[in-house]
Amino acid sequence: MANTPWAQILLFSIQTGSVYLLSAVALTLTYGLSKFPNFAHAEFMTLGAYTGFFIANLLHLPLPLTVLVCILCAFLVSGSLGLMSYKIIFGPLLRRGSSLIHLMIGSMALGFIIRYVIIEIWPGGTQSFTLPWPEASNIGPFRIYIPWILPIAAALVAGVSMQLLLTRTNIGRAIRATASNPQLAMASGINTGRVLLTTWFLSAGLAGMAGLFIGMKASFSPTMGWNILLSVFAVTVLGGIGSFYGAIAAAFIIGLAENVGVVILAQFGLASDYRTAISFVILIVVLLIKPEGLTRLFKGN
Amino acid sequence: MAPIFASVDVRAGYSDIVIVDGVSLEVEAGEIVAIVGPNGSGKSTLLKSFFGFAQFLSGKMFYKGEDITGRPADKMISSGIGYIPQTNNVFANLTITENLQMGAYTRSDRSQIATEIEGIFEIFHELKHRAKSFAGTLSGGERQMLAIARAMMGKPSVLMLDEPLASLSPKSVEGILDKLTLVRQSGTALVMIEQNVKRALSFANRAYILVEGKCIMQGPAGELLNDEQAKKRYLGLGT
Ligand SMILES: Nc1ncnc2c1ncn2[C@@H]1O[C@H](COP(=O)(O)OP(=O)(O)OP(=O)(O)O)[C@@H](O)[C@H]1O
Ligand SMILES: [Mg+2]
Question: Can you tell me the mean pLDDT for A241-255?
Answer without folding.
Answer: 84
